[in-house]
Write a structure and sequence with these properties.
Blueprint (H helix, E strand, L loop, with lengths): L13 H23 L14 H4 L8 H15 L40 H16 L16 H20 L1 H11 L1 H9 L3 H8 L2 H18 L20 H25 L7 H8 L6
């Protein structure tokens, strides 16, 4: 049991954050497996794909954008986006206020709502990830890569996007934890903005390499069909989702975009502080 003063019980303890990120690996892999069972269904992602249904009410976006808005409207009402680790894809101004009373979250981050990279997440997810993991089919009318499962596939898309978003925006917690571990190392590169130096301070190549190895192993296990002996069948043609694609998702998109979030957060870490507060942080060589 941990006490309230035990650093290991803090949401900003780096090991706690890493455990959260590791659990999100499992979540993302399983959600990709769920999405991969359907066809690409590109109709869901164009503004004219469901114009006959959606545009009657004045909505001009795509099927996915409509599903996101409807889903996030409900989630906003139950205060999902009051949490500092949740960021909606729908503009906050377009979402309703919660119908539940607010929770008193401790002030862990500096303005966590000021950074939102969800537009970039949607772009790489739709342009690169969905086409690479989904089944190739041809319907009875000869239409390629469309199985008509727009509701099921769209729901899986939303779940994937929300999990990836949470994982990437958790970078702000990582940055805050690393900043507090040695403020003096960061303060000069924030006062004289140097994103490259900040990136060097937060980058741990060995941790990233281990993450990618772990991801590949997980994806091969989770995505494999099991033989009679309970062991995975080593046949790439029978994988529920390609392990290589999961690794690529992290290597090319999730890890770099998380670093962008971390650096952007650090660049604003001293905003609103007095000179005396900044000087005190600059003098700290370790945890506060």
């Amino acid at each position: 049991m941990t006490s309230a003063s035990d650093p290991s019980s803090s949401p900003l303890d780096l090991e706690n954050i890493r455990r959260t990120l590791t659990r999100l690996e499992d979540t993302i892999i399983f959600l990709l497996i769920e999405r991969a069972q359907f066809a690409h269904n590109p109709r869901m992602y164009t503004k004219d794909g469901f114009a006959d249904v959606l545009h009657r009410d004045g909505f001009t976006g795509s099927w996915l954008e409509w599903l996101l808005r409807e889903t996030e409207t409900s989630h906003a009402k139950i205060r999902r986006y009051d949490s500092p680790d949740e960021h909606p894809f729908t503009p906050r101004a377009d979402l309703p206020a919660p119908i539940l009373p607010p929770l008193n979250y401790p002030p862990l981050l500096v303005d966590p709502t000021g950074i939102n990279v969800n537009p970039a997440i949607v772009t790489f997810y739709l342009d690169s990830i969905v086409p690479s993991i989904t089944r190739t089919v041809t319907d009875h009318l000869g239409k390629a890569n469309d199985d008509g499962n727009y509701g099921s596939a769209g729901t899986r898309d939303i779940e994937c996007l929300q999990a990836i978003s949470r994982r990437i925006h958790c970078g702000m917690f990582v940055s805050e934890s690393k900043f507090l571990s040695h403020p003096a190392a960061f303060v000069p590169h924030i006062l004289n903005p140097n994103p490259d130096e900040l990136l060097a301070l937060i980058t741990k190549p060995a941790v990233e390499a281990a993450l990618l190895v772990r991801l590949e192993n997980k994806a091969r296990w989770y995505g494999a069909e099991l033989g009679p002996d309970g062991e995975p069948v080593r046949d790439s043609g029978k994988e529920k989702v390609s392990a290589e694609e999961v690794v690529r998702l992290y290597r090319e998109y999730i890890i770099p975009l998380t670093k962008d979030v971390e650096v952007e957060y650090l660049l604003h870490r001293l905003d609103g502080l007095s000179q005396a507060e900044i000087d005190a942080l600059a003098a700290q060589q370790g945890p506060a």
